[in-house]
Design brief:
transmembrane helix; 9 helices; 2 domains; Ferredoxin-like protein; binds 2-acetamido-2-deoxy-beta-D-glucopyranose; 5 strands; alpha+beta; membrane; transmembrane; 5-stranded mixed β-sheet; Pathogenesis-related Protein p14a
Length: 229
Amino acid sequence: MGAPKPCFCLCLCLSIIIFFLPLVSSSHHLPGNPANEIVAIINKNRTAAKLGALNDSPGLGCMALQYVELCKDNCAATNGSVNCNPPEDDFTEVFGPNCGVELPTFGTITGHIVGCSQSKRYIADPEAAFSEVLVRDGRSLSVVRNRSHKGVGVGLFGVHKGPFFWCVLFGDGETNSTFMLEERGQGIKQKKGCFSGSAFACNSSNLIRSLGLWLLSLLLCLVLHILRG
Ligand SMILES: *[C@@H]1O[C@H](CO)[C@@H](O)[C@H](O)[C@H]1NC(C)=O
Ligand SMILES: *[C@@H]1O[C@H](CO)[C@@H](O)[C@H](O)[C@H]1NC(C)=O
Ligand SMILES: *[C@@H]1O[C@H](CO)[C@@H](O)[C@H](O)[C@H]1NC(C)=O
Ligand SMILES: *[C@@H]1O[C@H](CO)[C@@H](O)[C@H](O)[C@H]1NC(C)=O
């Protein structure tokens, strides 16, 4: 056999780079996270109305996801309203601790909007999710445009099959000292769904995709190695 050919080593190195590339690119504010896109749409809507843009708060986002996860059996199929009202205390006693929000940094929740849909098309179209699921009437638009908010977070539950739930939580306080997450802001990794400001993608498909790519390139390397053998 002898020593492996340099071309084989180069190929192996390349395959390892291919493995890590998707992981690195998804590690921060993934553009493909629909929850992040809803935050951007909300801020666009507010600034168009001459209101301040809101801070993107991962702590609020994580709690928004916790909130809708609790509501997942309450989607009114006819109009997308979510008949679910968890007690106020759940924020400090359940959602916050589950997310690792540091209790001393807890601010006030200044508003929330929840919506659901059976249709998967809204996952791929955050603009439509905003105007057709979350903000369909003047009441919810006035929540979006309330001057009391300083921060915002969005949770999205149900990535592969419906019903799909969206929750927007608004809060007060400065971004770097309110609703802070432990562990340098990583929050917990959610099994289903995703939230704005999260370091994680909407599901584990990135890892699976890069594993697949990696195996494929490894196979190519082997074939190349044998052919040139
Ligand atoms: C939505 O539908 C549910 C039941 O289907 C009803 O109870 C609720 O009042 C409706 N809400 C709105 C805003 O129309
Ligand atoms: C704005 O939000 C605050 C805090 O939740 C609330 O007290 C106030 O009534 C809201 N204002 C409007 C115009 O909805
Ligand atoms: C803000 O959102 C509302 C509700 O979807 C929509 O009617 C309005 O056109 C939006 N404004 C801008 C500037 O996007
Ligand atoms: C938070 O941000 C404000 C303004 O950006 C800054 O003045 C303040 O020192 C920051 N606080 C911390 C704890 O980083």
